[in-house]
Write a structure and sequence with these properties.
alpha+beta; four-stranded antiparallel β-sheet; 2 helices; 51% strand
């Protein structure tokens, strides 16, 4: 398994419980596919560098995980389909 950083931004107009639920849903995608979550950070609400879908702020989350290709592909697919996720980024970390 390879090491990845997965960052995503959730819409700021959701309730706090809904924001946490979105993060837990994406975390569950990884853990259900036997990935190890090495680090999990809820960075919080930050101003975006530029406006996205009429939003100027967003809630940032970061996962560092050892994952396989199947888990990363599914994470990417679900993050694209989820209308509450403004953006996501997946970076492979070379050791």
């Amino acid at each position: 398994m390879r090491k990845y950083e997965l960052m995503f931004i959730v819409k700021p107009d959701l309730e706090e419980t809904a924001i946490k639920k979105e993060a837990e849903t994406l975390k569950k995608v990884l853990t259900d596919r036997k990935c190890n979550i090495l680090e999990e950070k809820a960075i919080g609400q930050r101003e975006l560098a530029y406006e996205m879908n009429k939003y100027k702020n967003g809630y940032y989350f970061l996962f560092v995980a050892e994952a396989n290709n199947e888990a990363i592909s599914e994470f990417d697919r679900l993050a694209r389909l989820n209308e509450n996720i403004l953006r996501h980024l997946i970076v492979r970390i070379d050791d």
